[in-house]
Amino acid sequence: MKILTTIADAQARPRAKRRVLVPTMGALHKAHGELIRIAREAAGKDGEVAVSIFVNPLQFEPGGDYNRYPRPEKADEEFCRNAGVDLLFRPSAEEVYAADRSTFVEETSLSTPLEGKSRPGHFRGVCTVVSKLFNILAPDAAVFGEKDFQQLAIIRRMVRDLNFNIEVIALPTIREEDGLACSSRNQYLNPEERKQAAVLYRALTAAKDTGQKSAKDVVALARKLINKAHLARIDYVEVADAETLKPIEVTGANGVLLLAVFFGKTRLIDNIRLT
Ligand code: AMP
């Protein structure tokens, strides 16, 4: 596995037949393993799987967990090696961002509700760094997880709007045994918070299984179940259209239930398609 830390080295590297990129912030877990597996399938045996590990300061809001975000460098490197990654791109923040940077990439519609409302500037940071990674590594395809449902929709929109010649491949959400979506942030949870966090998937599946068509009723049911976990503090629970991410009142073929919930200081997100 080749490890690159500078943009110049990454751009100088000869191109494989087909390169598939998995952008991550590291602290790699089971879900990243699946993204890499899908990337390998998409790259084919002559192709190349590239993983980027970059904790992107631009997508953390002031007072967010940028400084305490886990950075287990050695373990991540081993993880990639064992997963058969060909190219690991691991630049520093100084390498990626010039001190006087003044150009950003911003999606202005899908980024407004949900995470965008709770985390102003977050998706501008995401779009900017993903564009830069696309320019630096020039992949033919890139793999993203449905766990970050809004992010995936925004990346697809950005790729379309800015004519990146890159196929976006989506991976369904990977979960722990009790249903909690795998996340690097789960390790912040203390044992009691971790136990109670399983309520999120129970609430999502219960809300889906009622077959309720009224978004208000779906949300009310999910909120009621989540509030049974006394450590849970809801940020939002909303039903949206999967394409536009705008709120909907009646869940048709395109309904998705999305939530963000705090357990202590840890903010977890999850979602489920309602059809
Ligand atoms: P992160 O390292 O958290 O920025 O995530 C890197 C990529 O992994 C993103 O495309 C995420 O959507 C995806 N991802 C993270 N957790 C999961 C999960 N539990 N299931 C599917 N994809 C995930």
Task: Describe this entry's structure for a reader.
With 275 residues, the chain is α/β, with parallel strands linked by helices. The chain is 35% helix and 20% strand. It contains ten helices and nine strands. The protein has helices at 7-12, 30-43, 73-82, 93-96, 115-118, 122-137, 149-161, 191-196, 199-209, 215-227; strands at residues 2-4, 19-24, 48-53, 87-89, 141-145, 167-171, 232-241, 255-263, 266-273. The strands form two sheets. A six-stranded parallel beta sheet has the order 1-4-3-2-5-6, with helices on both faces. A three-stranded antiparallel beta sheet has the order 7-8-9. The N and C termini lie far apart (41 Å). The mean pLDDT is 97. It binds adenosine monophosphate (AMP). The site of adenosine monophosphate has 16 residues, from helix 2 and strand 5.
Strand and helix map with partners:
Layout: E1 2-4, H1 7-12, E2 19-24, H2 30-43, E3 48-53, H3 73-82, E4 87-89, H4 93-96, H5 115-118, H6 122-137, E5 141-145, H7 149-161, E6 167-171, H8 191-196, H9 199-209, H10 215-227, E7 232-241, E8 255-263, E9 266-273
Parallel strand pairs: 1-4, 2-3, 2-5, 3-4, 5-6
Antiparallel strand pairs: 7-8, 8-9
Helix pairs in contact: 6-7, 9-10
Bound molecules: adenosine monophosphate.
> Which regions have little confidence, pLDDT < 50, spanning 5+ residues?
none
Helix/strand order, N-terminal first = EHEHEHEHHHEHEHHHEEE
Number of beta strands? 9
Query: Residue share in helices?
Result: 25-40%
- End-to-end separation in angstroms reads 41 Å
Number of helices: 10
Radius of gyration: 19 Å
Oligomer: single chain
* Major sheet size, sense and barrel closure: 6 strands, parallel
Shape: globular
Write down the overall mean pLDDT. 97
Q: What class do helices, strands and sheet pairing give?
A: alpha/beta
Q: In order across it, which strands form the biggest sheet?
A: 1-4-3-2-5-6
Small-molecule binders here are: adenosine monophosphate
Strand content: 15-25%
